[in-house]
Description:
The structure holds two protein chains of two kinds.
Chain A: E1 3-12, E2 15-25, E3 30-34, H1 41-49, E4 56-61, E5 64-65, H2 71-74, E6 76-79, H3 91-100, H4 110-123, H5 139-151, E7 157-161, H6 169-186, E8 189-194, H7 197-203, E9 206-211, E10 214-219, H8 221-226, H9 231-236, E11 241-247, E12 250-256, E13 261-264, E14 273-283, E15 286-293, E16 298-304, H10 305-311, E17 318-323, E18 327-330
Parallel strand pairs in A: 3-8, 3-9, 6-7, 7-8
Antiparallel strand pairs in A: 1-2, 1-4, 4-5, 9-10, 11-12, 12-18, 13-17, 14-15, 14-17, 15-16
Chain B: H1 3-10, H2 25-54, H3 59-67, H4 69-102, H5 108-115, H6 117-120, H7 123-134, H8 141-146, H9 155-181, H10 184-191, H11 196-225, H12 228-234, H13 244-253, H14 257-290
Amino acid sequence: MSIEVRGIWKHFGDFTALRDVSLHVEPGELLALLGPSGSGKTTLLRLIAGLERPDAGAISFDGEDATERSVRDRRVGFVFQHYALFRHMTVFENVAFGLRVQPRAQRPAEERIRARVHELLDLVQLEGLARRMPTQLSGGQRQRVALARALAVQPRVLLLDEPFGALDARVRRELRRWLRKLHDELGITSLFVTHDQEEALELADRVVVVNEGRIEQVGAPDEVYRRPATPFVFGFLGEANWLATTVDGRKARVGFRPDDLEISLGPLDGHAFAARVRRVQSLGARAKLELVSAVGALVQADVPAERVRMLALSPGAEVFAAPREMRVFFDDASA
Amino acid sequence: MTTAALNEIQSHPSGSVRAGLQDPPLVRAALVALALGFAALFLLLPLAAVFAEAFSGGLSVYWNAIRDPIAAKAIELTLIVAAVSVPANAIFGVAAAWAIARFEFRGKSLLVTLIDLPFAVSPVISGLIFVLLFGAQGVFGLWLVAHGVKIIFAVPGIVLATTFITFPFMARELIPLMQEQGSEEEEAAISLGASGWQMFRRVTLPNIRLGLLYGVVLLNARAMGEFGAVSVVSGHIRGLTNTVPLHVEILYNEYQSAAAFAVASLLALLALVTLVAKRALEWRIRQETRA
């Protein structure tokens, strides 16, 4: 199912959570809403779910206006950040909930419910845990119960709020791969919220970068990473160095990533600049260099450790540095 | 007292107190002795005295005092009052706790303050308020007389005064509990297609059931034991508007000490049952919140 968000505004008291946000989601797409905390990404997700009402703007599903439709009728599966499993129900009853509360006329018979729940538990690989209580599960298992519960009512959209936020790094990576696989199998339109750029870039078909209630950029992971539209996107998606400059008489900022820096003892072609090494920090195969440019700007470089050994770099050394790739942002323009 | 506060006190067993905060053994022993001694002197001793005095005339005196038709009537009235005011306050408490824990609205802090009002006002004053409102000379007095409705010096007045006095217990118990649990489970229920009623019955109610029971136990103990406010509105009509505490006072004033304490022992028994139930519920709540 496709989702169309048009001109959404949302205020909480004096705080403006979303400012004129518009977004189109393709059917079957896996979309990441990426941004720092407080950027409005979760609010956007909750608005699409119908858990919040917009102050202005419209939301439609498959071209059909859903702005006034309640959560109950939207048929969205929502997975909460802290899972929100029903604490007094077993795993089985949690997953069965959406089927049991259906109007009597549509409610499946008990054995149909049983079969459907076991099918879902099988899908999320929790077949043996049907009779456990939520408190007896690990974080990753709870996450998958929450997912199975949301899928039980055959939602048209799956919305996940920080789905891996509360998990440790190893479980997170595993679950990420597993979720991508599940999405490809089910083909259900999905949106997830995250503040982790690595997660967004690895998992999503397209990434929506949100900042201060506005959408900064929408694009494929490679596109937002390689061609960031705004200084914010550039800075948020990875480490960044910034140098002030003028291009054609206009003030501008040049941004480049620490690992896109070529270091040499002799002059280099292109946009090279002279700098002095202030600190060398070796981290296994890579080394971090702290450079001070001729005009006194601090620049971070991330180079192969071998390069440092080859050039015999140590604090005080005079070098030339050239960004292989960089982005120029004019101060008097938004992009 | 709320369970949240209790849990905090009890979640620090003596073994886990940081060594830096340990007082010298002598100071500790003195403090423990003082606390226990105080409790024995002011709590245990009176309780023992109630039962000792109640049985001082022998079992038959005890039995007759309780079986006395007027005493039986007082017990009946007390049960009726509790049967009305406990459910009424339970329903109000859930509604108020829900509103306060779940929504932002104008006048919320005023509501929170108002809920505590009966705690702040002396029960006698509370009783007088009802006399001023519904008594023969009261604000609604003429209207009530004209329509033949009797509130003051009758059962409705006693129920009203008791309900007013016990008003805060349930809400005070549930507000912190519901705030701590948050509304995510309820949102999850709605997003899965549950109606408001289904959400309440299948998710909210089971989650607060222990707090609800705890509140009912406290409400009930207070409703049955209330003296001051009830004393003002009841009129002390024997066999008609006397509750158990009022009946005890009358017996005592008539120098029927053994009978007075016999009936009083029922209230003491209620207190003991309440304490045990309260303790058991606190234990269950701790088990659930820890898990």
